[in-house]
Design a protein that fits this description.
Helices cover about 55% and strands about 15% of the residues. It has two helices and four strands, in the order E-E-E-H-E-H. The relative contact order is 0.14. A hairpin with a 6-residue loop joins strand 1 and strand 2. It has a two-stranded antiparallel sheet with strand order 1-2. Strands 3-4 form a two-stranded antiparallel sheet. By secondary structure, the chain is an alpha+beta fold. The protein has a domain of about 45 residues. The N and C termini lie far apart (about 65 Å). The structure holds zinc ion. The site of zinc ion has 8 residues, from strand 4 and helix 2.
Length: about 70
């Protein structure tokens, strides 16, 4: 059997090791539900935060300058 002991709250897979994102401690306190991530989701989440911010920032700048130039 390849199933792990712990359940990843992000992808729903059962894994042998889960990690809790310390950054989300405030969020967890509000929802009262601990967020456990498998190693893959934990890393993806940390990187995704920065990547998403960059993409959104770039899109916003491009869209704004384009709209301003047309009008
Ligand atoms: Zn996961």
């Amino acid at each position: 059997m390849s199933e792990g002991t712990y359940l990843c709250d992000t992808c729903g897979r059962r894994v042998n090791t889960v990690r809790r994102d310390v950054v989300d401690r405030d969020y967890n306190a509000l929802s009262k539900a601990p967020l456990w991530n498998c190693e893959a989701c934990y890393q993806r989440k940390r990187q995704g935060r920065t990547d998403t911010a960059k993409v959104v920032a770039n899109s916003a700048v491009g869209g704004l300058s384009e709209t301003a130039g047309n009008s």
